[in-house]
Amino acid sequence: MVGFASEDGPHIALTPEKVTEVAGLTISNSFIYGFLTAALLVVILFIAKSKVHLKAARGITQIVEILVEFVIGLIESPLGSRAKAVKYAPIFGTFLLFIIISNLLGLLPIVGPGVYANTAEGQTPLFRPFTADLNGTIAMSVIAIIIVQYLSIKESGFLGHLKHYFTDKPLNPINTFIGILEVLGELTRIMSLSLRLFLNTAVGEILISVFAYIGKDFRSFTILPIVTFEILVAGIQAYVFTMLCATYLGLAISHGHDDEQPAHEVDPVVSALEGEVVSH
């Protein structure tokens, strides 16, 4: 049974909540939300694809075309050429669009305590933003890093990819040690990507819940500034996640093709983006 929630206090949860169980697998509210978000994204893109023509498009198709061109321009610099940017735009564009849509739909009143499901544990919110679930952001980060590794090997070859970590003299003890640290660094990238996305989204959800509860009688006035700020954060986090993944791939490809560049050199773009913090 699904209904609209009526609570005496703000609903705050840092972890996803179980809604039902299928074949022994727990179906959480963030899983339902993520599935519906992905389905919506697929529908939008198929509609846009069916309406693409040589003439100028309008509506959803025009918006998608603008976003595609934006993604190509975004990743062109890290990847080193427009040809590679066009080639890999569908991959990085999927990350960008999914994160933006997930974050923006999370601002709707029906997400969170707006709509609930009656479960064995009581009333549970039916929807929770996928990016506000640490399990979800870790899964996205793992997939992103695996894709980066795969594309890097595809572009540079397996031996060329190893040079990204161990240079062309892997038997040198110093290069071996630094290479091992670089490999372990991939794990820190996963945690960095996932925690940044999760914390910004989760904190935003908490702030909206608290301010909505504080200003019950003047809800639109109390949460409007927070919602406006969260719209900005949604775009920034999608941009940072996509840009970092593209930069990781660009570094791996450039190291695979340039034997003279040391594998442990720190790229200033990565340093700047990884140091980016959006404070609520």
State the gist of this model:
With 280 residues, the protein is mainly alpha-helical. It contains 7 helices and 5 strands.
Order of strands, widest sheet: 1-4-5
Structurally, the number of domains stands at 1
Number of helices: 7
- Can you count the beta strands? 5
Order of helices and strands: EEEHHHEEHHHH
Low-confidence stretches: 1-6, 258-266
Given the helix and strand composition, which structural class is it?
mainly alpha
Largest sheet: 3 strands, antiparallel
Identify the overall geometry. globular
Strand content: 5-15%
The overall pLDDT, averaged over residues, is 78
Determine Rg (CA atoms, Å): 21 Å
The termini sit apart by 35 Å
Range of helix content: 55-70%
Task: Give structural attributes.
disordered N terminus; single chain; two-stranded antiparallel sheet; 280 residues; mainly alpha; 67% helix; three-stranded antiparallel sheet; globular
How would you explain this protein's 3D organization?
With 280 residues, the protein is mostly helical. The protein has one domain. Helices cover 67% and strands 9% of the residues. The strands form two sheets. A three-stranded antiparallel sheet has the order 1-4-5. It has a two-stranded antiparallel sheet with strand order 2-3. A hairpin with a 2-residue loop joins strand 2 (18-22) and strand 3. Helix 2 crosses helix 3 (82-105), helix 3 packs antiparallel against helix 6 (219-257) and helix 4 (134-166) runs parallel beside helix 6. It is globular, with a radius of gyration of 21 Å. The two termini are 35 Å apart.
